[in-house]
Amino acid sequence: MSAELLQFIFSGLTAGAIYALVGLGFSIIYNASQVINFAQGEFVMIGGMATVSLLAAGLPMPVAIALAVVATVAVGIALEKLAIEPARGASIVTLIIITIGASIFLRGLAQVVWDRNFHSMPPFTGDTPINIGGASVVPQSLWVLGCTVAIVAALWAFFNRTRFGKAILATSYNSDIARLMGINVRFVLLFSFALAALLGAIAGVLITPIILTNYQVGVLLGLKGFSAAIVGGLGNPMGAIAGGFVVGIAESITAGYVSSDYKDAVAFVIILLVLFFRPQGLFGRRGAERV
Amino acid sequence: MSVATAASANGKTPVLEVSGLCTHYGRIQALFGIDLQVAQGELVALVGANGAGKTTLLRTISGLQPASAGTIRFLGEDLASVAAERRVRKGIVQVPEGRQVFGPMSVEDNLRLGAYTRSPGEVEDGLQRMYAMFPVLKERRRLAAGTLSGGQQQMLAIARALMARPRLLLLDEPSMGLAPLLIEEVFETVRMLREELITIFLVEQNAHKALSVADRGYVIETGRIVLGDSGPALLGNAQVQAAYLGV
Ligand SMILES: Nc1ncnc2c1ncn2[C@@H]1O[C@H](COP(=O)(O)OP(=O)(O)OP(=O)(O)O)[C@@H](O)[C@H]1O
Ligand SMILES: [Mg+2]
Questions:
Q1: To test ligand 1's pocket by mutation, which of B50, B55, B64, B173 has the most ligand atoms within 8 angstroms of CB?
Q2: What are the residue ranges of helices labelled H in chain B?
Q3: Rounded to a whole number, what is the distance in Å from the CA of A93 to chain B's nearest CA?
Q4: How many whole angstroms from A95 Cα to the centroid of ligand 2?
Q5: Which residue of A23, B11, B78, B245 is surrounded by the most CB atoms within 10 Å?
Q6: Mean pLDDT calculated for residue range A249-263
Q7: What are residue A214's phi and psi, to 5 degrees?
Q8: Atom 9, ligand 1: which residue's CA is nearest?
Q9: B55 lines ligand 1 (CB under 6 A)
Q10: What is the DSSP letter of B22?
């Protein structure tokens, strides 16, 4: 394999890991409620922006990151409590429109709380690139990949090994029947928003040292995460992860061999291709099993 | 005055008391003032045709469907403000129509979810009891529930409900879509549960089978209880025979 291709693959994997985390957030909320949460990208933005501002306030990096993640989770919980829960019983489309409204609101709020400028954040552990097979990889990329692998493993264990994780899965298969088991599906929905916000925040913290961030960085990251979820089959968490890497690598190869002008279009082209030729996603949709 | 009171179980503790219950789907009314009782240890059957409101009644009792009027009392307590998932903790456990097992999950996971409200010790104990009662579920415990045959899925749905240690078991058409031999098996299971003194409210289109095992029965027509009597009496009732037993 040429060093050049390897280089593109590494940058594709790094971006893909982020899209995977965002896509997982979409899938988790979709499974709990069939709602597509278009504020998912804003969780990524808040995670990154909050870390940047807490670092600027002089907090050590681990503390800043922890507080930023907690704050983002609080935003996720507030979104469910204040915007989704009161509209319980409304149609799914209404709920989706509410999330779009929430995303616009959160971007507006971010402009007020922070500003409209681009901000950067130092990498976790230096920026001396490492040479892997002729490709040069920044340490932050390894953080992104390592953390994503760890999160995916933790989520897998949570959903397949714990009582509450299985209750969430059961709710996604059939929420009425889950209630007949004594599962509190309203709490499952609240938890899903918190978990999706957690994943978004972590994605934001991981990627901010590589890209610049500002109040609207979540728009594009959210849409790419959404395309990851669509590629993987909406509501199929493992599919969303694979979908994230498909989108990330397709994007970086296009940017490398064609033109970086087309980079951001790749995700949209992929969404259209998948919806046209294989609407259930490459890996099958969870919702298809629902009765 | 009402047919239901005439058939009420004299002197026994009522586990379930439904009175004046109405349920709507939007503006369409499905239940019109349902009155019925189920006493401790009783097996009560509710029979009625397609679309009569049997499932609606069970879903209202278990709390999945809101009642628009009337009361449901369980062991004397009014359930109006008790959410469905909390009714399970109180002991009202429903086996849904069409089995509705969690198809992609293993048989054992389905059983464990049935005992979601129980302590870890009760879960393990329940598994042992269910595997003893339904050996085929033990054999297939690692398989996805969706791969079981219809009859096995019905056994799993019943076992899953028993895992919750019901004080009142609601069974919605357990014989639906099963071959005659399997129907026999399902009713054998119902009889066995009855011998263990589990209080059961059984809903069926198969009136003959249901009334044969039941202590008492009710007949529902377009959302109203039209008859209530002992199982044998209903089996002998000319009206019931003409409408439901094809005699
Ligand atoms: N979700 C719903 N929305 C609107 N109407 C409904 C809904 N579910 C049931 N109904 C109506 O309520 C009435 C009672 O239906 P229900 O399912 O309770 O009947 P059933 O006795 O269980 O019938 P079956 O023997 O076919 O299961 C029917 O007229 C049905 O069309
Ligand atoms: Mg029914």
A1: B55
A2: 3-6, 54-62, 84-90, 107-114, 120-133, 135-139, 150-162, 180-195, 207-213, 231-236, 238-244
A3: 19
A4: 30
A5: A23
A6: 89
A7: -150, -170
A8: B56
A9: yes
A10: E
Distance from the Cα of A163 to chain B's closest Cα (Å) equals: 8
Task: Per-residue pLDDT tens, chain B, 247 aa: give them.
Answer: 444 444 444 566 799 999 999 999 999 999 999 999 999 999 999 999 999 999 999 999 999 999 999 999 999 999 999 999 999 999 999 999 999 999 999 999 999 999 999 999 999 999 999 999 999 999 999 999 999 999 999 999 999 999 999 999 999 999 998 999 999 999 999 999 999 989 999 999 999 999 999 999 999 999 999 999 998 999 998 888 888 877 6
**B25, B95, B97, B206, best to mutate for ligand 1 pocket (most atoms within 8 Å of CB):** B25
Cα A270 to the center of its chain, rounded Å:
17
The answer to whether the pTM exceeds 0.95 is: no
Among B82, B85, B87, B117, the residue to mutate for chain A (most A Cβ within 10 A)? B85
At residue A214, the pLDDT reads 92
Amino acid identity of A165?
A: G
Chain B contacts to A (CB-CB under 8 A): 62-64, 83-86, 88-89, 93-94, 96, 98, 100, 102-105, 109, 112-114, 116-117, 160, 164
Q: Is B182 in the pocket of ligand 1 (CB under 6 A)?
A: no
Integer-rounded Cα Rg, in Å, for chain A is 19
**Superfamily of domain covering B3-97+166-245:** P-loop containing nucleotide triphosphate hydrolases (3.40.50.300)
Q: Which residue is associated with the tokens 């932050």? A: A140
Given a contact cutoff of 8 angstroms between Cβ atoms, the answer to whether B191 and B142 are in contact is: no
Contacts of A4 (CB under 8 A, 6+ apart): A256
Distance between CA atoms of B125 and B127, rounded to whole angstroms?
Answer: 5
Tell how strand A135-137 and strand B77-78 pair up: unpaired
**Could you give the C-alpha distances from B79 to A9, A231, B96, B117, B208, in angstroms and in order?**
59, 45, 20, 18, 32
Residue ranges per domain, chain B? Answer: 3-97+166-245
For residue range A26-73, list pLDDT tens digits in order: 999 999 888 999 999 999 999 999 999 999 999 999 999 999 999 999
Among protein residues, the one with the nearest Cα to ligand 1's atom 26 is B50
Under 8 Å between Cβ of A209 and A68: no
- Interface contact flag, A183 B85, Cβ < 8 Å: yes
pLDDT at residue B4, as a whole number: 45
